[in-house]
Backbone:
């Protein structure tokens, strides 16, 4: 899995998490750069710094979880807090 931190779409088939830093939108893209895969999952305050340590892959569902204690990450659309999560602002991102 690759974390793409830039504006625009997935660059190749391994890009699954796309953070549009100019809008704060965080997408989960289940099929990389193929058509129709990107799902807006969360929105952060513009300028929030995210990196690979904020994410983990959950098996067997192949969902991605965003872990951050920062209160400026808000769940939107398909983002949801996982049951039993100890992370106050955790989101499960899935297509």
Residues:
């Amino acid at each position: 899995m690759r974390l793409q931190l830039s504006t625009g779409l997935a660059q190749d088939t391994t890009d699954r998490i796309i953070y549009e830093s100019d809008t704060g939108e965080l997408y989960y893209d289940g099929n990389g750069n193929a058509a129709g895969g990107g799902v807006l999952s969360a929105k952060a305050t513009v300028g929030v710094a995210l990196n690979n340590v904020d994410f983990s892959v959950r098996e067997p569902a192949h969902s991605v979880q965003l872990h951050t204690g920062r209160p400026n990450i808000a769940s939107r659309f398909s983002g949801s807090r996982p049951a039993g999560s100890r992370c106050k602002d955790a989101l499960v991102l899935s297509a």
